Amino acid sequence: MSREETIGFYKANAIKYLTREADKNGEEDLDKALTYIGRLKRFKYLKNVDATTDETHVN
Question: pTM score, two decimals?
Answer without folding.
Answer: 0.78
